[in-house]
Structures are given as C-alpha cells and as structure tokens.
Amino acid sequence: MEKNKRLFIETYGCQMNVYDSEIVLSILANDGYAPCDSLDDADLILVNTCSIRDNAEQRVWGRLDCFLQEKKSRDVKVGVLGCMAERLRQELLSHPAVDIVAGPDTYRELPAMLRRLEESGESQINTTLSLKETYADIDPIRTDRNRVSTFISIMRGCNNMCTYCIVPYVRGGERSRDPKSIVREAERMYAAGYREVNLLGQNVDSYLWKNPDNMTETVDFAQLLELVALVAPDLRVRFSTSHPKDMGNGVLYSMAMYPNICTHIHLPVQSGSDRMLGKMNRKYTIAGYMDRIDKIREIVPDAAVTTDIIAGFCSETEEDHLATLELMRRVRFDSAFMFQYSERPGTKAARHFPDDVPHEVKTRRLNEIIELQSSISLERNRECIGGTYEVLIEGTSKRDSNSLFGRTSSNKVCVFPALGHRPGEYVNIKVESCTSATLLGNIVE
Ligand code: 5AD
Ligand code: SF4
C-alpha cells in the first residue's frame, strides 16, 4: 500500500468550522491521510474558510498566496473548504494555488475528489448543498489541545434570513441531527476523559428532530439538553447560539433543573433599535428581547448573558446607535462580540439597502460600543469578587506556568495557583480580584 499521506488543515471562522475540520480529518484518515502539525510536512493543505465578514475572506486570499509559494518548491495539493468555497466557487478555483473547492455539505466526497485530481491532474469542485447531511455517523478527530472541553454539532444550516447574513446562502437550510448520535458522541467524549461538551448550532432553539420512521416522535432542544445532561452529572453541557425570537422557557427550565447545564446564554441582540432590528429581519423587538432577559433572570438567576452587536448597519442613525448603548446599559451583558457591519454580496441587505454609514462613523460607533462593554464586563466581574465558584480546570495559564485556568459555569475564565491540581478536575475558587476579561482567585475546600 502507498505510504500514508500527510494532511494539514487550517481553520478560520466559528467553532462550527473547527468541528467541520475535525469531521474532514476523520473522513480523510479513513482514506490514508494522517493529520500533521506543520504545513511544511504536508502533502495536502486544506483551508476551511469563513465568509461572515470581508476581513475573514481577505485573510484567506493572503494564505492562498502563501500556499502558492509553497507549491513552487514542492509537490503539494491545496483545497479550499467551507463557507468561502460555497460562496465563491469558480472564482476560488481560478486562483493558481487551488486544486480543490469543496462546500460544507460535500466533505464525504473529498476522497473521491482527491482521487480524480490525482488521476486526471484536473482541479475539482463540488459545492452542492444538502437538505439532509449532518455527518451524524462520523466520529470527528479532535484537535482541541486541552482534552477537557469539546464541541458537538447538533444541527447544520440556518433558515432565518437575517438581511445582513451570508450564512443561509453558504450553509444551506436548517437540519437537526439525530439525538441518539449526539448522545452517543457525548458519551464517547466523557469516556475519553472530556468533562464539557458545547452543543453547536446557528440557532439551537429551533433544533427539532423528527423520527423519519414515525413523524409523531420528536425531540426539541430543551429535551435534547436534558438527554445530554443525563450522560453524566460531572459532564458540563454548554450550548450556543440562542435566538431571541425562539428561546422558549423550556430551555430555561432544563437549565434550572440540571446543575451540569451551564448557566450561560449567548443571545445575540445585534442592535438596540427596533427600526434596525426590523430592517435586519430579526423578528423580535427590544421589548421582546427584554422579556427574554427578564425570564432568564427569573428562572436561572445566576446565568451570564452574552451577545453579538453590529455597529453601522445600513441607514443606522446616531439615535439608533444611542439606543444600542442604552440597551447595553439596561441588560449589562457579561461580555459581547462586537463588529462593524460588512456588506456581503448576495444578501438581502446588499441587494436592497445602501451600505451608507461612512467607514469612520462605523469605526467610531464600534469603539464606543467596545469601550462601554469593557467597563460593563469589568463591573460584572467585580461583582464576583468574594464569591466562590466551581471551576472546571482546562489547562496551564499562558502567563504563569504555576497557575491553572478554567471556567465557571457562567463561562468566565478564572486563573489561580495550581496547588497540584490538573486539567479535567473541578475545584472551588474564591475570587479575589479581576480584570474585564478574567477572574483571579484561589482554591478553597
Ligand atoms: N457584518 C458584520 N457582522 C456580521 N455578523 C453576521 N453577519 C455580519 C455582517 N455582514 C455578526 C452577527 C452574528 C455574528 C456571528 O456575526 O453579529 O451574530
Ligand atoms: Fe461559521 Fe458563519 Fe464563518 Fe461560516 S460564515 S465559518 S458559519 S461564522
């Protein structure tokens, strides 16, 4: 048999993409490709890409130029996977470095595509989207370093059609994975020593599995959460992303009932202005969003709430922007991902709404949002000082090899002196001080 080929895979974008890269490693391992840690050793370089904002794409074009240099000195094949592959298709194939373009639902075809490339020398492309593919039966090859916390994809695609977003076009329609295969994957992870699984979907609240043999048998997200929580009491369960229009109280009651379902909800608001939310097609108002926040605080009082915010969406006025700052002060998010609006070709916003907020105004508004959030994050963390929290240890602190780091159930990173403890253990930490991003403390009994 031919000697093993070596595969290097580089991943951009969200955790979903990290998971997909692990699926690809598994599919290609069965075809004789061994993962390697360095680009220099690879016979095949794959780059799993993201299209969410223009800067994510620009980085990948830069990488392709680097791979082209690599190809000049040796025989190496290059493939582009993921959202950019789906969006740009032939345009990517015409880059001189690229041999393969494969969209997010075509990874099972990669071995056949590689064989055809080998035989014919002709570049290969497949960007077919599927209504069914969930890769449910594939056991991903994990690439996380800590072996404590990992991800499980529970659904693929998105049906929401937010006007700014490219995801429905590049990831296709929503489909939910068989809950039995999700639970089995969580059990395997637990047996391998993992103590935390993050359930991933674009909109986990619309998870709905229907038994194909008996359509009356269904599992919704609140039920799925419970099934995974029951795998083991010391296996933490996290999930993201929640959607304000779909997050029902059932999920909150599941969280309140099972101590191992983590008390953190990522609930992207995007804007504090009803006019902007309407234009974004988010299908909720600020009053509706606040109703969800009130319910979270009533049913899971210690839950942390984090969010995503876009600055400078089409026609956003100073008044809309001030409404976003006002909402942030009202909710007091524990942390946030904050972005400038980036027009994505093909979306409804790109087709119908002018991208008319000047770049410097977007930047200024984003900076105001970031500044406010960092003071709120600091205040939120200060509220933890003096409290004791259960922390799952993930690894050694980057700054200090005698310290460990882990997370509280509410997803706050916590750093503390090691005292002989190891990753994968739970410890109680009394918080002594903090920054806007980290809690600092000591182990207590
Ligand atoms: N421009 C800027 N940010 C965007 N997001 C999605 N599409 C865009 C865009 N075109 C942000 C949203 C989403 C997060 C994953 O990325 O805030 O929740
Ligand atoms: Fe993930 Fe969205 Fe980027 Fe695709 S476009 S990799 S789904 S963040």
Task: Provide the fold topology.
Blueprint (H helix, E strand, L loop, with lengths): L4 E7 L3 H15 L3 E3 L8 E6 L4 H20 L3 E5 H7 L1 H4 L6 E3 L7 H11 L3 E3 L22 E5 L1 E2 L10 H5 L3 E2 L2 H13 L4 E5 L7 E4 L2 E7 H9 L6 E5 L8 H9 L6 E3 L7 H6 L6 H14 L4 E8 L6 H14 L3 E6 L7 H5 L6 H24 L5 E9 L6 E6 L4 E5 L8 E9 L3 E7 L1
Helix pairs in contact: 8-9, 12-14
The chain binds 5'-deoxyadenosine (5AD) and iron/sulfur cluster (SF4).
Plain-language structure description:
This protein is an alpha/beta fold and 445 residues long. The protein is built from 14 helices and 21 strands. Strands 2-1-3-4-5-6 form a six-stranded parallel β-sheet, with helices on both faces. The chain starts with a strand and ends with a strand. The structure holds 5'-deoxyadenosine and iron/sulfur cluster. The site of 5'-deoxyadenosine has 12 residues, from β15. The site of iron/sulfur cluster has 13 residues, from α1, α3 and α6.
Please outline what is shown here:
This protein is α/β, with parallel strands linked by helices and 445 residues long.
Distinct small molecules: 5'-deoxyadenosine, iron/sulfur cluster
- The 3D shape can be described as globular
Strand percentage, roughly?
15-25%
* Mean of residue pLDDT values: 97
Q: Let me know the largest β-sheet.
A: 6 strands, parallel
The structure class reads alpha/beta
Distance between the termini: 57 Å
C-alpha-based Rg, rounded: 23 Å
- What is the tally of helical segments? 14
Descriptors:
445 residues, alpha/beta, six-stranded parallel beta sheet, five-stranded mixed beta barrel, 14 helices, 35% helix, binds 5'-deoxyadenosine, binds iron/sulfur cluster
